[in-house]
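hiii so um. not sure if this is the right channel but i have a protein structure encoded as tokens and i wanna go backwards to a sequence. like what aa goes where. can anyone help
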């Protein structure tokens, strides 16, 4: 499931995710991937899990204690992501030969008729 974030799920959403048996709620690929595709930009996502929401507690609640735990994990993950991205950027990759720039999606309202 992909939702627009960053935000916590509402209690109603969490209960619905449990009912639908979803394991992961992702907030990293929308709307960024759509915009990248529209502009013909190659796109890759790196995601990290910051909290458990679905099915962990019988009484789902978002309180300051849980929020602070999430922020602590998020901060640690941010440092790991920085290291990973710098490591990737320092590699010498061959020039990509892809069709991303050739397949730009032009919104219908800007197409020439």
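sure thing!! here u go:
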């Amino acid at each position: 499931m992909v939702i627009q974030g960053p935000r916590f799920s509402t209690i109603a959403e969490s209960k619905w995710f449990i009912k639908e048996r979803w394991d992961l709620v992702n907030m990293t690929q929308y709307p960024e991937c759509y915009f990248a595709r529209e502009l013909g930009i190659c796109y890759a996502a790196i995601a990290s899990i910051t909290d458990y929401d679905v099915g962990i507690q019988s009484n789902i609640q978002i309180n300051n204690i849980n929020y602070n735990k999430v922020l602590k994990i998020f901060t640690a993950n941010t440092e790991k992501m920085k290291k990973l991205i710098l490591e990737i950027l320092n590699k010498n990759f061959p020039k990509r030969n892809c069709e991303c720039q050739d397949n730009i999606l032009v919104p219908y309202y800007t197409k020439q008729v």
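oh and The chain has one domain: 11-106.
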